[in-house]
Amino acid sequence: MEELLKKFSEQLLNEMDKRFEKVDRRFDEVDQRFEKVDQQFEKVDQRLSLLENDTKDLKEGQREMKEILKHHMTLHAEGFTNLHKYIKKVDHKVERLQKEQKPH
After folding, report:
1. CA distances from 29 to 4, 16, 19, 70, 89 (A)
2. Could you give the CA distance from residue 98 to residue 86 in angstroms, rounded to a whole number?
3. Where along the chain do its domains lie?
4. DSSP letters along 36-75, please?
5. Confidence band for 1, pLDDT divided at 50, 70 and 90
6. pLDDT tens-digit series, residues 66-101
7. pLDDT reported for residue 101
């Protein structure tokens, strides 16, 4: 009887060991899945970081373009103002020459 109990307890222990091994393997599988998920999160973080850098570069480029446009608009406005003044001077000189050439 004692020997039978011993065998039975050994069998139970063996079965428990097998079950624990299965549980350990499942935990290992879950750990591997979590590692894969972590790797995917790292990739997403890297992509977001690149996107953030691209967004910063884009905003900086927009600022630079606005400054360039403002500068060119100022230059064009000054050019048109100077052209307008020059045309007025020419008109004034033409009028004066016409008055001088008219017989009194």
Report:
1. 37, 20, 15, 61, 89
2. 18
3. 1-103
4. HHHHHHHHHHHHHHHHHHHHHHHHHHHHHHHHHHHHHHHH
5. confident
6. 999 999 999 999 999 999 999 999 999 999 999 888
7. 86
